[in-house]
Amino acid sequence: MKTEDLIGLLAADTLPVRRHVAARRLAVGLLLALPVSLLLMAAVLGPNPVLGAYLRLPMFWVKFGTPLLMAAAGLALVARLGRPGISSRAAWSAWALPIAGLWALGGLVLWQAPAAEAPQLMLSRTWRVCAENIAVLSLPMFLAAIWTLRGMAPVRPALAGAAAGALAGALGAAVYALHCPELAAPFIAIWYVLGMALPVAAGALLGPRLLRW
């Protein structure tokens, strides 16, 4: 059999892939996963009883809005790393830039505060559980992102797994913000960032196994 005949035979039964199929797959996954995370937060932790008052405070929107910005970049990361030959540098920069803003704000608050107040600003009451709670709440979104990537063609599975963690960690932090009583910028800059970084590290470690072709 000639090479041309073999190629024609292999291509005879192929069907065109619908446009935006990966985006639709990810949307379905997140529409299922995000309510699970919200229900988990409500059932185990409970929403902040003074959330209504917090909505009028700028720092709440820093705490809640920054992860949402990072989640938007995480969507782009998953979409890019699910396809061969697509650069993800700009999306990673967009994901990391809000972290730099949090660190700058946290550093400014610490610089202006008396030295005796620094431990309270950085640790407050919930530092032992903050990062862990964010990581747990991110798990449903992480599974949704991995499910999406398994239906795509990631050629860098460790980096693609990290992208799934970047999206999931950011959404987990936004969900946790609806419970969290903390508003100090240094606290958010340390523990929220750590909580969002944990799924990224887990995704990088698990990606080669979960996204193996």
Attribute tags:
globular; 213 residues; mainly alpha
Strand-helix topology:
Elements: H1 3-11, H2 21-45, H3 51-54, H4 58-81, H5 89-112, H6 118-123, H7 127-150, H8 157-177, H9 185-210
Give an overview of the whole structure.
- This protein has 213 residues and is mainly α.
- It has one domain.
- It has nine helices and no strands.
- The mean pLDDT is 92.
- This is DUF1109 family protein.
Please outline what is shown here:
With 213 residues, the protein is an all-alpha fold.
Number of domains: 1
Which value, in Å, is the CA radius of gyration?
20 Å
Distance N to C terminus: 29 Å
Strand content: under 5%
The overall pLDDT average reads 92
> What is the helix content?
over 70%
Number of DSSP strand runs:
0
Sheet with most strands: none
Tally of separate helices? 9
SSE-based structural type: mainly alpha
Shape: globular
**Unreliable segments (pLDDT under 50, ≥5 consecutive)?**
none
